[in-house]
Amino acid sequence: QVQFVESGGGLVQPGGSLRLSCAASGSSFRISGMGWYRQAPGAQRELVADISRGGGTNYADSVKGRFTISRDNAKNMLYLQMNSLKPEDTAVYYCNIRPPLAGYWGQGTQVTVSS
């Protein structure tokens, strides 16, 4: 059994920062790579960043240098630090394993970047 609960989104001005959190239930978190995904209005869901069980990271070109993904395996937590936010970062952000587990998406957390 697995469940993901995202939090930390909100309304922020361009250039601002947010830190997203994902609480993952179950022991699968400890043995899986994890990813942050986002879905903008009218767009497909895309992978933003992922992190291996051991901490290796990858980022989409659109966020490289601005976002940082991290995890705390002892607490079953996944984080996404987002700096220098742009309007095009506006989306609902989700966490899941990498590759994602079908049928186990959480509700996501809304990030809106606007003046």
Keywords:
46% strand, 115 residues, 4-stranded antiparallel β-sheet, 10 strands, mainly beta
What does this molecule look like?
With 115 residues, the protein is mainly β. 0% of the residues lie in helices and 46% in strands. The strands form 2 sheets. A 6-stranded mixed β-sheet has the order 2-10-9-4-5-6, with no helix packed on it. A 4-stranded antiparallel β-sheet has the order 1-3-8-7, with no helix packed on it. Strand 7 and strand 8 form a beta hairpin. The chain is globular.
Compile the SSE list and pairings.
Elements (H helix, E strand, L loop, with lengths): L3 E4 L2 E3 L5 E7 L9 E6 L6 E6 L5 E3 L7 E6 L4 E6 L8 E7 L11 E5 L2
Parallel strand pairs: 2-10
Antiparallel strand pairs: 1-3, 3-8, 4-5, 4-9, 5-6, 7-8, 9-10
In short:
This protein is mostly beta strands. Helix content is 0%, strand content 46%.
Number of helices: 0
Supply the helix-strand structural class: mainly beta
Categorize the overall geometry. Answer: globular
Largest sheet: 6 strands, mixed
Roughly what is the average pLDDT, rounded to an integer? Answer: 94
- Report helical residue fraction: under 10%
Count the beta strands: 10
Work out the strand percent: over 45%
Low-confidence stretches: none
Whole-number radius of gyration?
13 Å
Give the N-terminus to C-terminus distance in angstroms. Answer: 41 Å
- The ordered string of helix (H) and strand (E) elements is EEEEEEEEEE
Spatial sequence of strands, sheet with the most strands: 2-10-9-4-5-6
